[in-house]
Design a protein that fits this description.
Aspartate Aminotransferase, domain 2, alpha/beta, binds ligand PLZ, Aspartate Aminotransferase, domain 1, 16 strands, 442 residues
Length: 442
């Protein structure tokens, strides 16, 4: 690993050279494209991001759950370089190549369920979700799409409609796509319902307000990401999946954030043995290169007419080579087990922080996808979110050289998504910084 694995602060964060670059960004990059922590990165690997001022920051975000195998992971770099030297693009729809097929074969093997599966490849998570809906509509002959409170599915027109939160994702960007309906999510901290009860509540809304027979698919993140790392109560997902099966509705798991070893399994659905009809993947699939997929039951995938799925760059050969390198890293380093170990370490530390700071009202997550929710709870159990404290703790972590992310409908969730290549020592140090930030902002 070329980047020394140590936190090092040579300047204030952001440093002077990063600030110069930020001025150029302001001049040339659209203001709508935000940057959370404007340190300009020059190299990264293991658990470290190094900036242009020579500062080394500990990465607890993985570029939003993308560099699961680590930044510039060896097998990814090797495959990318070899592929770039051989050829960079042909367009799979014009003249195909083996890497695309290899990725689809890997997806057939790794995604939940033992049935015959096929895949189609795309560039971004949002594009995969859009295509899952297209496939579900053709396969069922129905129009309606069910999504959940707090859901995040992307920023394109259809996926904005599917995403719950208005600011910053939707405000002013409508009108949105039709035939998208929202059901209540299982959110144990807020609703106190069992999985069975929460599923019954969601099913009732869909049946009464949309009509089960009109539904093409239910699209759900098995653990919600941007919406707040919301882990549904046990039994919720299996019950919804069963109801879908019983009623000819396709169960689509959006595993874009949870997939590829992040949660301690290959996929988050594996935890309760839920087998989706279609699954969308992106992010962790390719170690940082843009690639996404829809994988599903062969007969559903094949319901679409020839030429109905595609795109110029979908399954680009370099992105496919990167994905094969990422999967190789996950297999050879048993990264699912590493995610579980990282999860146990984080869980331990976060639980002690929660014991010390009343503002931490929940510790949740699975594997290397952990979060704490900040707020107060009254005697009735009602939650008042504390976004201000969340922002203050986060700002403090950034200043101390730890890249932390927040999320949640109310902006009151601190989430931890370290690359699985981070060492225990570095992770422990980062969590020390988080603990100090809580103490300093008390
Ligand atoms: N589905 C579950 O998490 C992307 C978005 C960050 P794209 N999440 C990070 C932002 O502010 O844009 C995501 C996701 C789930 C779909 C997507 C969309 O994936 O690759 O960003 O299109």
């Amino acid at each position: 690993m070329s980047v020394p694995q140590e936190r090092r602060l040579l300047t204030r964060i952001p440093g002077p050279l990063s600030l110069e670059r930020l001025e150029r960004k302001k001049r040339y990059v659209a203001d709508g494209v935000g940057t959370m922590l404007p340190v300009s990165i020059v190299r990264a690997g293991g658990g470290i991001l190094e900036d242009v001022d020579g500062n080394r920051l500990i990465d607890l975000g993985s570029g939003i759950a993308v560099t699961t195998v680590g930044n510039a992971a060896p097998a990814v770099v090797r495959n990318v370089v070899e592929q770039a030297e051989a050829f960079t693009h042909t367009c799979f729809m014009i003249t195909p190549y083996e890497g695309y097929i290899d990725v689809c074969a890997a997806l057939a093997e790794l995604t939940p369920g033992e049935h015959a599966k096929k895949s189609a490849l795309f560039n971004s998570g949002a594009e995969a979700v859009e295509n899952a809906v297209k496939i579900a509509r053709v396969a069922t002959g129905r129009d309606a799409v069910a999504v959940f409170d707090h859901a995040y599915h992307g920023r394109t027109n259809l996926t904005m409609a599917m995403t719950a939160k208005n600011q910053p994702y939707k405000n002013g960007f409508g009108p949105f796509a039709a035939e998208v309906y929202r059901a209540p999510m299982s959110y144990p901290l807020h609703d106190g319902l069992s999985g069975e009860q929460a599923a019954a509540r969601a099913i009732d809304v869909l049946d009464k307000q949309v009509g089960t027979g009109n539904l093409a698919c239910v699209v759900i993140e098995p653990i919600q990401g941007e919406g707040g790392f919301i882990v549904p109560a046990p039994g919720f997902l299996p019950r919804i999946a069963q109801w879908c099966r019983d009623n000819g509705v396709l169960f689509v798991a959006d595993e874009i954030q949870t997939g590829f070893c992040r949660t301690g399994d290959w996929f988050a659905c594996d935890d309760e043995g839920v087998v989706p009809d279609l699954v969308t993947t992106a992010k962790g699939i390719a170690g940082g290169l843009p690639l996404a997929a829809v994988t599903g039951r062969a007969e559903l995938m094949d319901a679409v007419h020839g030429g109905g799925l595609g795109g110029t760059y979908g399954g680009n050969p370099i992105a496919c080579a990167a994905a094969l390198g990422a999967v190789e890293e996950m297999r050879e380093r048993d990264l699912a087990a590493r995610a579980a170990a990282i999860g146990a370490l984080m869980r331990d530390r976060l639980t002690s922080m929660a014991a010390e700071h009343d503002v931490i009202i929940d510790v949740r997550g699975r594997g290397a996808m952990q979060a704490i929710e900040l707020g107060t709870r009254d005697a009735s159990g009602a939650v008042t979110p504390d976004a201000a404290r969340t922002a203050a703790v986060s700002a403090r972590c950034h200043a101390e050289g730890v890249v932390t992310l927040t999320c949640g409908t109310w902006g009151n969730v601190f989430r931890f998504l370290p690359p699985l290549s981070i060492s225990d020592d570095l992770l422990g140090e980062a969590l020390d910084v988080v603990a100090e930030a809580f103490a300093a902002t008390a």
